[in-house]
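Minutes, project check-in

Agenda point 3 was the complex the collaborators sent over. CS summarized: three entities, 1096 residues total, and the question is how they sit relative to each other. Sequences were read into the notes so everyone works from the same version.
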Amino acid sequence: MNYIKTVLAVLALAAAACSAYAQEQFIPAIDYRVGPYAAGGSGFFGGAIDYMTLVNMNGGINGVKLIWEECETEYNATRGVECYERLKKAHGGMSLVEPLSTGIAYGLLDRVGQDKIPMTTLGYGRSDAADGRVFPYVFPLITSYWSQAAAMIKYLGEKAGGLDKLKGKKIVHLYHDSAFGKEPIPVFEAFAKQLGFELIKIPVAHPGLEQQAQWLQIRQAKPDYVILWGWGVMNATALKSAQRNGFPREKILGVWWAGSEEDVIPAGAAAKGYTTMTFNTPGNYPLLDEIRKKVYGAGKGNLEDKARIGSVYHMRGITAAVLWVEAIRRAQDKFGKGKVMTSEQVRWGFENLNVDDARLKALGAVGMMPTVKTSCLDHEGSGATKVQQWDGAKWKSISPNWLTGDKAMIRKMVEESAAKYAAEKKITPRDCSKEG
Amino acid sequence: MQFFFEVLIAGLLSGVMYSLVALGYVLIYKASGVFNFAQGAMVFFAALTAVGLHDLGLSLWVAVPLTMAVMVVLGLVTERIVLRPLVAQPEITLFMATIGLSFFIEGLAQAIWGANVRGLDLGIDDVPLEWLLDHANMAISQFDLIAAAIAAAMVAALAIFFSKTKIGRALRAVADDHQAALSVGIPLHHVWGVVWAVAGFVALVSGLLWGARNGVQFSLTFLALKALPVLILGGFTSVPGAIVGGLIIGASEKLAEVFLGPYVGGGIDGWFPYVLALLFLLVRPEGLFGEKIIRRI
Amino acid sequence: MFYREAGQFKATYEEDSRIFPIRQDRIVFAFILAFAFLGVPLLASLGIVSNYTFTAILTPFLIFSLAALGLNILTGYAGQLSLGTAAFMAVGAFASYNFMLRIEGMPILVAFMLGGLCAAAVGIVFGLPSLRIRGFYLAAATLATQFFIVWCLTKVGWFTNYSSSGVISAQKIVILGYTFQSSMSKYLFVLAVVSVMALLAKNMVRSNIGRSWMAIRDMDMAAEVIGFRPIRTKLMAFAVSSFYCGVAGALFAYAYLGTVEPEGFNLDLSFRILFMVIIGGAGSILGSFLGAAFIVLLPIYLNVLLNFTEAATGIDLPSGLSSSVELMVFGSLIIFFLIVEPHGLARLWQIGKEKLRLWPFPH
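CS then shared the predicted structure for the full assembly.
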C-alpha cells in the first residue's frame, strides 16, 4: 500500500507542476529503449522527439509549444497500458498516442475510443482500422500491412515484367508466427488466386534465432521470391541463413519492419543486395539538415549516436511527428490558431489531413515521405510505398516512383473486416456524409 | 533421401551450437546446484562487451582476453554477492536470485554499451562449402563446421581440466557432495568462484559464435530457450549429456519442422524440442546421463 | 502488546476451525475488505483515487494476484514448479471468449467458470508428467505447455473466430442488464471475483485437500506411504491451479486489456507470475497478493521516481540509460529481497506480527 501512496504523492506533485504549462500541447512517448526491440524504439521515438524539439525551436505550432514525456514499456502490453493510463491526463491531457507496438495498440484500441484520444499506428496494427466509420479514433497513417502486401505483389509483378508474368511463379511468405506475420496472409492468398502464382507459407517461431529448417525448405522449393515478414532478431538470422544456403538476397523482399539498419547490420555482408519495403525514401533532405544543425547543434538531440540521424527508424519517427504536428496545425486552422487543441480536435485534424507536395516542400521533406490526405472514410490517407536495397553500407531507393497496390481490392477487404468487427462489438458505423 | 541427410546434418550442427550454451548451465548446476537462469544474459553481456571493445578500436585479440577478464570478475562478484548469502537456501530461491541477476546483467550491458544492435565478424565466412554444393548438392556452412570444431575443442579442454587438474578434481568432489568435500579441506567458496569464472568463459565463447552467426543483440538472451530442452534431455549434471542432448534436439527439431511441420501448419520448432524432451523424461526422469536419483524416506 | 491473543478462548469446535482464529486478524481482514469495496470507491468519488489508479494499478494488481494465487497453489502448496502459467491464462481467456461468442445469451460469469474448467482440463493433461518428473526437470517440461498452447491458439483459426491476425476482442461484461464499463465498476467486478476465489482458496488449503498437497510437497514418498494417492493429489493441484489461472486469464482479457493476441500470454508473463509467488512467499495466500503488488508496482514506481528525480535535480539522463538503470535496480531489488528474506514478503509480515505481539516488552 505504501507504494500506491508514494506513487500518488509523486503524481500529485507532477500534476501540480504541470498545471503551469497550460499553453502546451502534450504528446506522450510510450517507448521502449531496453530489451530485444530497443534499437527500433530508440530510433523511432528519437526521431519523433527530435522533430518536436525542432518545432519548438522554430516557435511551436502558431506559438503553441509541444511537450512530451517518456514512459518505458519494454514492449510489454501491460506496461504499455499502464503508461497510457498514467499519461492520459498529464500535462493537460494527451492529444494523441503512438505505441509503436502491435500488442500495446490492441490493448489501447477500446480505451482510445472511450477516452476520445486519437491513436496513430504508422505502418502496423489493424489494417481494417483504415475504415474510419468503424474506427473513428484509430489512424493507420500512410499505409497498413494490407496495402503494403498489395504493393509488394505489384513490385514483384513489375520486376517480373508485368503482373500477368507472375503466373506460375513461386513466392514464399516467410513470416514471424504471430498476429503480425499472419496479418497479410489473406491478401497474399487473394492475389495468388487472382494472378495464379503459388504461395508457400513458412512460419518461424518466435524469436527466430535458428532458421536452418525453414531455409532448407526454401532451398528445396526453389522459389522465385521470398517475402520476409520478420521482426527483431529473426531478420538478421534470415539473411544469414539465406547466405549459408546460397539463396540470393536480391530475391528477398522484406516488410518495412525488416528494413532498417538495425536489421541488416548484424547480418554483415550477408545483407548486401537485400530489398525491403519502406515508406520513407532513403537519402538526405533539408529537414534532416535542419535537425542536424539546429537540434543537434544545440546539443538537444535525442539520439546518442549521431550517425543514426537519417537512419530508417529515425526518419520514420520524424515522419510520424510531422503528421502529428500537421494534424494539430490543421485542427488549429479550424478551431482557433495559437490555442491548445483538445484530443477531440486533434482527431478532427487527423481525419482532415492534407499534406501535399507544397506542404512537404515547405517542411523540407519532399520525397522523404508520400503525400497524405485522409478523410472520414479513409484513415490511411496514402497507401504509397517504395522499395529500397541495402548496398552493404546504406539503403538506396530502387523504385523511382511511389508504389501503390490494388487499392480497390484492399478497400473491399478492409470494409468487410471492419464490418465483421463492428458486428462482433455491436458498433454502429458512423455516417461519413454527416461529418464536417 | 539426400534432402533428409542435408536436414539431418544441418540439425546436428546447430545442435552443437545449442550444446555450447547448455554447457554453461551444466557447469554451474553440477558444482553448486544452482540453476543459473542468468546464463543467457551472460552470453549477451560477453558478446556485447567483446564487440563493444572491438568497436572502440581494439583488435579482437585484445578485446576477447579483456572480455574474458571482465567475465571472470563478473563471475567472482556474482558468487560473492548473490550466491554466498543464499547458501543452503531452497533451489527455487537460488533460481529466483539468478533471474534477478539476469535483469541486472541485461540492464548493465545496455547501460554500458547502449541498446543498438551490432555486427560481429570473426573472419569466418558463413557460406556453403563449394565442394559439397557442387558434388552432393548439399549446403553445409563452413562456419558451422568451424563452430562445431571449436565446441569440440572446448569440451575436450573442459574434460581435461576436470580430470587432470587439481582444481578440476576439487570441482568434481564438490559436485558429488558439498559437505564431504568441505570436510576433506576443499575450499568451497574458492571452487564456486572458479566455476562461475569458467561459466563466464563458456558464455564468452558461445556469445562470440552466436554473435557472429546472428548479430550481437539483446535476443541472444533468448538462447536460454534453445538450451533448456537440451538440458532436460541430457541431464542437468552431465557434460557429455549436454553434447548428446544438443545433437538429438538439433537434429530432431529440424527434421520435425521440415517433414512434420507442413502437415500441422509449421512453426513447431518452438515447442517440439520441449515435447520431445518431455516424452523422453517420462521414460528416464533424470535425463539421458543424469545421476540416477535414489530416494529414501 | 498490540497483537495479543491472550484472553481469546475458543469454546466451540466452530470457533477453533475459523479461517481467522485471532480477533485482530478478523478485524484487519474485515477492514481491508470494507476498504477495498467501499472505501476505495468513496475516495474515488471524492477525487482522491483517480481513474488511473483503478485501470492501471488496482485492476491489474488484482488480476495478477489471482494468477499468482493459482500458481501458488501448485508451486507453493503442492510443490510442483511450473513455468506454464500464462498458457493456462490464455486457455481461460480464449475459452471464455468462444463460449460468449458461440452460445447465445451465455451469462458472463458462467463463461468465466467454463473457461476456468477448460483451463483445468488442459492443466490435468499437462500435469500428467508430474507423476514421474520433479524439480527443474518438471519446470522446464512445463515450458512445453507454454509454447504448445500459444502455438495452437495462433494456428487454429477457430479459437480466434478466424480473425486474420489472430486477435480477439473481448465482449462487454454484462450482468443482469448492467454493463461494467467504467473503470471503477470493472475494478469492483474483479475485486468481487478475486475475493470470493481467494476465500475459497484459503479454505481449500486448510481442508484435507490442502493438507494432502502439503504432504506431497514436503515428501511425496512418505505421503504415498501413509496413504495419499499421488496421482489424484497432484492432478487435483494442477486442475485447481489451472482453474484459478484460467479465470485470471479471462479477467485479464475482459476486464483489463479488452483485446488480446495469443502472443500476449507469452513466457514473460509466466515468469512474472512466478516472481510474484516467490517474492510474495510460496505457500501463502497473502503472499500471492504481496508478490503481485511488488511486481506490478515496483517498475511503475521506479519509472515515476526516476522521472521525478531527473525533473527535480535537473539532470537529464539519456532516455536509454534511465530505462537500463530501471532494469538494474529492479534486478538488484529482487536479489536483495531474496537475501534478506528468502521465504518472501509473507514471511516478513509474520515476523512483523511476532514483533507486534511482544513490543514494547522484551519478552
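Noted in discussion: Chain B touches chain A through 52 residues (CB under 8 Å).
Follow-up: revisit at the next meeting once the mutant set is ready.
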